[in-house]
Design brief:
143 residues, mainly alpha, Arc Repressor Mutant, subunit A, three-stranded antiparallel sheet, 59% helix, globular, disordered C terminus
Length: 143
């Protein structure tokens, strides 16, 4: 799609005009890079892709485990609380505002949004191309 122009929400203007012929919205690379710019947002997207809808508490525990910064049970509780706060107030709202995920604040649940597919596909493609996964990425961070 060389030469495509995109609107302020990252949608291809060419695809917008051809909407009846194109069932799925496309997103520009900058939109995907912004959505996946933070490691925690990548973990959230990966977890939703692998396990489906989640509550923010479980997402925080998974992010904490992926960061391998849990030295003791007391620290793990503190770390999960910090991550919960960061996810609830920063990362989840960011992804929700981009329509990558849907966030039900009352229930505290997160589910894939209308732009989830292209973002997760891009994440998978990058991880495959760079031969990295969360486990490999953690090893590089630790070592």
């Amino acid at each position: 799609m060389t030469g495509d122009r995109f609107d302020s929400e990252g949608e291809s203007l060419a695809r917008k005009s051809a909407a009846p012929l194109v069932p799925q919205r496309t997103v520009c690379p900058d939109f995907v890079f912004e959505a996946l710019n933070d490691r925690r947002r990548r973990v959230v997207c990966r977890m939703l892709a692998e396990e489906g809808d989640q509550d923010v508490t479980r997402l925080a525990a998974s992010v904490a485990a992926s960061e391998r910064q849990l030295a003791s049970p007391a620290e793990s509780v503190d770390r999960c609380e910090q991550l919960y706060t960061a996810l609830y107030h920063q990362h989840v709202p960011k992804l929700a505002s981009m329509k990558v995920i849907s966030f039900d604040r009352e229930e505290g649940t997160v589910s894939p949004g209308e732009r989830f597919g292209p973002v997760v596909d891009a994440l998978g493609a990058v991880e495959t191309a760079l031969d990295c996964s969360d486990a490999v990425e953690r090893g590089r961070m630790d070592g």
